[in-house]
Structures are given as structure tokens and as C-alpha cells.
Amino acid sequence: MAKEQINDEKPKLKRKQYEKELRRLQAELCHLQDWVKHKGLRIIVAFEGRDGAGKGGTIRAITERVSPRVFRVVALPAPSDREKSQMYIQRYMQHFPAAGEIVIFDRSWYNRAGVEHVMGFCTKEEHRRFLELCPVAEKFIVDGGIQLIKYWLEVSNKEQERRFEARINDPLRQWKLSPVDLPSRSAWYEYSRARDMMLKATDTKVAPWYILRSDNKKRARLNCITHLLSLIPYKKVKREKVKLPKRAKKGAYNDQATLEGRNFVPEKY
Question: Does 96 map to a domain?
Fold first, then answer.
């Protein structure tokens, strides 16, 4: 409780201040991107948390100014019947990074430790086996040369309720409401117990969990990017100076006249 009170007492982060700091951090992410490509690094960043914790907005803040070819976001739908018959982590492994890539999982194999367990989409034995085998699998991933970073976004009961109400009342946010979102409100303590079991079993030295308080979205995004940058040592890669070439006159013709009579989009604005 003391930490939450300290968090609440922080002065409001003004939009201009937030945008200025976000832009600075996003520039650093661009430098990190160049370094990852230069060194052929392979990195996984997994985002987990309750529904409404702010995972999507945090991921967008990270990926807004970088290349989707380097920062790949993976958000898998519910497994198909074929995928349900596979080894559990199998459908995630096909999205793992190659050299020069950072893969961001918007929810990951930890679905089994959270929503699948709480909502009864897996058996108790499947849940137990997952918690037992997950640290072994993650050690295999890290030993294979992939840096694995795991974030749990911790949102308070009051703030989750406020965000759900906003989604219900705003047609621009209603798409965020999934069939399991509303039941997650009544199952608050079941999710808390599932979180606690997950952290106890999978918060290891090889692949530790980092808990990010996310009641304040702006602060959470800045804190997350700052922390992410601190976990991956990088240097600025020297770039060659770029000079824009002039348009060649060879083969010149009226290339606008040839568009006459084509179907143009009406210019209403």
C-alpha cells in the first residue's frame, strides 16, 4: 500500500513534458534498433498483465518510431484445434526472432498461467505442468542466445474498473472488450492468485519478471522504455551521410498526363 500512496503523490505529468521525453526515448530506441541489426542480436520482450493493464499502449509507444521489420509485434489469436494438439509453446516458437530482430509478444505462452487457468480453458494438470516446465523451456531459449525480457503490468482494481467503464461507454474503445474481459472483473482475486503462482514458479535468475505499475499510462510507458533500454547494452552505429540524388532527365515525359481519365479518390478535404 505504501508504494501505491507514493505513486499517487507524484505530480501530474504534463502532456508536453511527456511527449518531449517520449520522443527522446524513441530516438534511443532507433539507436538500439541499429545496434541490434549491426550485431545480429535476438531479443524477445513478453508483455503480460490483467485485461486493461495498458499493454497495447505501452507496446505502441515502443514501436511507433521504429521499423516493423526489426521490432515485430506478435499478438496471437485463440489456438486452432490443430494448435491445441501441439506442444503448448510450439505455436509461439515459430515467431521467435532471427538475427537482428526484437519480437514483442502482446501476451505470450503465459496465457496458460493466466486466462486459460482462471477461465478453465486448460486442466489443472496442464497448468501445473506448464509452471513446472516453463523455467526449463526459458533456460533453453536463453542458452540458445536469445535475450528474454518479461514485463508484468500491474494495474489496480480501481483503475481497471475505470478503464473498463470507458471501453463500455466509448464506441471507439468497445472493440477492446473481448468475451473474457468482463468476467475478469469478477474473477479479480482468481487472477491475483494465478499471478502469484506464476511469479513464484517462473521468476528466475535466467529469465526474471519485471513488474511495471501501470495506473498512470504515461509514466508507465516512459518507465518501461527507459528500463528496456537499460537491459540491452548498445552503442550508436555510425551511419554514412545520405545525399539525395537529383531526378534524371533521361527518358523524361509528361508522366501526369498519362493519368488523365483514371479513377482518383475524391478530394473532400
Answer: yes
